[in-house]
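Dear Dr. L.,

I hope this message finds you well. Following up on our conversation about the binding site, I have prepared a predicted three-dimensional model of the protein together with flavin-adenine dinucleotide. For your records, I am including the exact sequence and ligand specification that went into the calculation, followed by the C-alpha cells. Please feel free to forward this to your student if that is useful.
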Amino acid sequence: PFEVLVVGGGPAGAAAAVYTARKGFSTGIAAERFGGQLNDTLGIENLPGTPYTEGPKLTDSLKSHVGQYDIDLMDLARAVELRASKDVGGFHEVVMANGATLRARSLILSTGARWRNLGVPGEAEYRNKGVAYCPHCDGPLFKGKRIAVIGGGNSGVEAAIDLAGIVGHVTLVEFDVKLRADEVLQRKLRSMPNVEIITNGQTTEVLGDGTRVNGMVVKDRASGDERRIDLEGVFVQIGLVPNTEWLQGTGLELSKHGEIVTDDHGATNIPGIYAAGDCTTVPHKQIVVAMGEGAKAGLGAFDFLIRNEPV
Ligand code: FAD
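The resulting structure of the complex is given below.
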C-alpha cells in the first residue's frame, strides 16, 4: 500500500507526486499514459519560464523529475473502479483494468480530460496543422489569418471573441438554430466587425493542401446546400470531456459536466481524496494551472495525512 496514490500522470499528477514524495510519503502514480495530453501537443509557448517547448519533451522532463524521487510509476495502468474508505484515515482502494487493486490512505485524482472531436474527414489529418482545440495555446499562431470556430456554446463564443482580437476573420459555426452561449457573450461577439456567425450549420469536412488546412465545408441544415469557406485554421470547441466516467456512482461529487468538485485546497467531498487539473471544476484547462493545482492537491494530501492517524 501507498500513503499517497496519484491516479493520472499528466502535468497535474506529476506535480502532485513530486510534492508528496518530497514530504517523505510513499507515493505511487498509476497512469494510463504518462504525460497525458502533452503527448498530443506540439509547440508550448505559454508555460512561464519556458519560452518554448514541445509536449513530448515536457513529458520526458516530467518523467525524469518524477524519477529523481522514490515514486512508483505505473505507466499503462488504467483505473476502472474507486472504493472509498468508510473511515476517515482508512485505506481507499483503486481497482485497475488488469484486475490489480491499489490501496492508499490518500488519493489524488488527476485523470485529465479530452477534447470532443468533430469526427469529420480532414480533422485528424490536419490536427496541429490548422485544426486546433485550445485558443489560449494556438490563437497567436493564426495572427491576421482567417479561422473558424466550431461550436456556439460558451466556450465556442468565448474563443471566437478572443480570436477575433488576434486573427483577421472569424467564422463561428453552430449546429443548432441559435447560439447557446450567455446573452452577454453573444452581444459582445455580434459587436465585433470581423466575425460572421452561421447557425444551423453542420461542418462536414476540413480541407487542406496535404500539408495545412486551407478550407472547410459547411452544410446549411435547412436547405442541405454545402458551402466551401477558405481559411487557414479551424478551432473545435464542442466540449471538453473529463475522464471521470469510472468515478460515477462512487459517492464522489461530480458536477453536471462530470468534473470532480474540489474546494480551494483541492479536496473532494470524501476525506483523504484530492483532485487536480483538467478533470476538476477548476476553470481554465492549461498546463500551468494543472501543475499548480497538482502541487496544491499534494500539499492538501500532506495536511490530511499528518492530521489523521491510520485506522
Ligand atoms: P492530462 O494531461 O489529460 O493527463 C491525464 C492523465 O490521466 C494521463 O496520464 C492519462 O493517461 C491519465 N488517465 C486518464 N484516465 C485514467 C484512468 N482511468 N486511470 C489511470 N489514468 C488515467 N495547455 C497549455 O497550457 N499550453 C498549450 O500549448 C497547450 N496545448 C495543447 C494542445 C493540445 C492538442 C491539447 C489536447 C491540449 C493542450 N493544452 C495546452 C492543454 C493541456 O495539455 C492540459 O490542460 C493539461 O495537460 C492538463 O493536465 P492534467 O494533468 O490535468 O491532465
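In brief: The helical segments are 11-22, 55-67, 135-138, 154-164, 183-190, 287-307.

With kind regards,
A. P.
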